[in-house]
Design goal:
Pathway: Sulfur metabolism; glutathione metabolism. InterPro entries: GGT_bact, GGT_lsub, GGT_peptidase, GGT_ssub_C, Ntn_hydrolases_N. It comes from Stella humosa. This is Glutathione hydrolase proenzyme. This enzyme consists of two polypeptide chains, which are synthesized in precursor form from a single polypeptide. By secondary structure, the chain is of the alpha+beta class. The chain has a single domain, classed as Gamma-glutamyltranspeptidase, small (S) subunit (Glutamine Phosphoribosylpyrophosphate, subunit 1, domain 1). It contains 20 helices and 23 strands. A 7-stranded antiparallel β-sheet has the order 1-22-21-17-16-9-8. It has a 7-stranded antiparallel β-sheet with strand order 7-4-3-11-10-2-23, covered by helices on one side. Helix 6 packs antiparallel against helix 10 and helix 14 crosses helix 17. The longest helix is centred in the middle third of the chain and has 21 residues. The protein starts with 7 loop residues before the first helix and ends with a strand. The N terminus is likely disordered. Bound molecules: glycine (GLY).
Length: about 575
């Protein structure tokens, strides 16, 4: 496999260390056998979407860096080596666990709409919504980036090594070159808009227009200079001055221009928000609150299924999955109606009310699917919204990091679709996050909560998650890319680890099965037939799912030590010492 072309250090880091102690207690995953053993480490670990990025994080941890220090190094390398998924031109949500302070903090580095953007941003002259890809490509979709400002805030609070040091692995790789990975090469196929960008075209494509193949050594001196500027000048180097001016010019000069100004970039502020936490059996599960819908949706599903015993049935049981899928339908119905930027649209406080979730869970029929679910009437609801049907296309990246002191990061990071808006500025890509807003501002005479407004953050599905035991100790952290499917992917791995006692590798490898309040989407592995048949008998419309998850998960063992898993569907690895 082409990974042979990758540097030796990157390969060595992927060789998994002593195996997970003992076989997992749960049933083996039906169909998709894990391609690798779970990784084990005594002191620290990083699980990320690319071996070079994971190696950079590991180097920082080996040097005594904190989990946040390592996350910054990983993000900067991902900007270079996984440019289709995330980067300094995008946004992120970060959960941070401070072991000494026993404090969970959630950082919101979500992009914002420019101040001048309004509800009709994605409506054409005829008042109809633009075609999705017409909205994606160009300046209209670009949100004010938030990832670097957010990482800077997290570093001020939790960093140990100097900020500038964290950029050195990425700067060296950008300067000297990295081997294009098979996944990046595959994503470059058939992307005419990216090829047409004057900076991205010659960088990613050969003179004859074909994509540079996997294994090609790719240097990015423009990104090396940008990262050096941020290393020296902090996030100000991105949000003010010449780089910011170039961002504004690229957005304004695109075929479909956006309205972003220097004032928008200067004014961007990351937020520290309350985590969304729910009790679930022996644990407390915490995630990211709005503007992400991920934490709320996962919390709702867990609240609805808690009364059922999923353990006895196991991961091959259509009945167990039916409960999860039906709860997911109900959660998506609420999500589509109520969840948006909380600074503009307050979340109904009753959405996680135990009685409300018990009532919603009571709608689930054990022998038959509900079909399409409608939103509930949660206590404290303040306004009546129309459902949002916005598309989210699967890109994004997830990392999980635990440092030697037990501090942890679970961070999902994104530029939205593959290669974002397809606009490359100074070696990095600008996001298309604004297409996570509803294109339609109102329906049936009611506003959509997630409509575009100036300065507002688009609703996300990103679901960085952490789980704590009864004594408040961190027991695992996980998350995934994948657009709106992120919620189902993360839920699958969570239930697999908590209810089915699978180790992190088996949990992430387990075939994906989810419902977004429509057809049930099932990954068609060789063992999937009986599960699909069982679900059809329960009334599910089962559709094959081809979109890959990109889960990463780390479990902290009670006696010390870390076990990690990385999704075999992408190029991620879990490495540690
Ligand atoms: N752009 C993917 C998400 O925020 O869910």
């Amino acid at each position: 496999m082409t990974m042979r072309r990758w540097p030796l250090a990157a390969l060595l880091c992927c060789l998994v260390l002593p195996a997970w102690a003992g076989p997992p207690a749960g049933s083996p995953p039906p169909g998709l056998a894990p391609e690798r053993m779970a990784a084990y480490a005594r002191s620290h670990m990083v699980a990320a979407a690319n071996p070079l990025a994971a190696a950079a994080g590991r180097t920082i941890l080996q040097a005594g860096g904190s989990a946040v220090d390592a996350a910054i190094a990983v993000q900067m390398v991902l900007t270079l080596v996984e440019p289709q998924s995330s980067g300094i031109g995008g946004g992120a949500f970060l959960l941070h666990w401070s072991a000494a302070g026993r404090e969970l903090r959630t950082y919101d580095g979500r992009e914002t709409a420019p101040a001048a953007a309004g509800p009709n941003l994605f409506l054409g002259a005829d008042g109809r919504p633009l075609r999705f890809m017409d909205a994606v490509v160009g300046g209209l979709s670009v949100g004010v980036p938030g990832a670097v400002r957010m990482l800077e805030a997290a570093h001020r609070a939790h960093g140990r090594l100097p900020w500038a040091d964290l950029f050195q692995p990425a700067i060296a790789l950008a300067r000297d070159g990295f081997a294009i990975s098979p996944r990046l090469a595959a994503t470059l196929q058939d992307d005419a808009a990216l090829r047409a960008d004057p900076a991205a075209g010659p960088y990613f494509y050969q003179p004859d227009g074909s994509p540079k193949p996997a294994g090609t050594l790719l240097a990015n001196p423009a990104l090396a200079a940008t990262l050096q500027a941020i290393a020296t000048g902090g996030a100000d180097a991105l949000h003010t001055g010449p780089i910011a001016q170039d961002i504004v010019a690229a957005v304004a000069g695109a075929a479909r221009p956006g309205s972003m100004t220097l004032a928008d970039l200067v004014g961007y502020r990351p937020q520290v928000r309350d985590a969304v936490c729910v009790p679930y059996r022996l644990w407390r599960v915490c995630g990211m609150g709005p503007p992400s819908s991920g934490g709320v949706a996962i919390a709702q599903v867990l609240g609805m299924v808690e009364r059922h015993d999923l353990t006895a049935a196991g991961p091959a049981s259509p009945d167990a999955w039916h409960l999860l899928l039906e709860a997911s339908r109900l959660a998506f119905a609420d999500r589509d109606r109520y969840v948006a930027d909380p600074d503009r649209v307050p979340l109904p406080p009753g959405l996680l009310d135990r009685r409300y979730l018990a009532d919603r869970g009571g709608l689930i029929r054990t022998g038959e699917s509900l079909g399409r679910a409608t939103a509930g009437e949660p206590p404290g609801k303040r306004a009546d919204f129309a459902p949002d049907r916005s598309l989210e296309i699967p890109a994004t990246s997830h990392m999980v990091i635990v440092d030697r002191d037990g501090n942890a990061v679970s961070m999902t990071t994104t530029i939205e679709g593959p290669f974002g808006s397809k606009l490359m500025v100074r070696g990095f890509l600008l996001n298309n996050e604004l297409t996570d807003f509803s294109f339609v501002p109102e329906a049936d005479g009611r506003p959509v909560a997630n409509r575009v407004e100036g300065g507002k953050r688009p609703r996300s599905s990103m679901s960085p998650t952490m789980v704590f035991d009864r004594d408040g100790r961190l027991v695992m952290a996980l998350g995934s890319p994948g657009g709106a499917r992120i919620i189902g992917y993360t839920l699958k791995a969570l239930v697999a680890m908590l209810d089915w006692d699978l180790d992190p590798q088996r949990a992430v490898s387990l075939p994906n099965l989810l419902n977004r309040n429509g057809p049930t989407e099932l990954e068609m592995t060789p063992g999937a037939g009986p599960l699909a048949d069982g679900l059809r008998r329960l009334g599910h419309e089962v559709q094959p799912m081809t979109a890959p998850s990109g889960l990463q998960a780390i479990r902290l063992l009670p006696g010390g030590g870390l076990v990690g898993g990385a999704d075999p569907r992408r190029e991620g690895v879990a490495v540690g010492d």
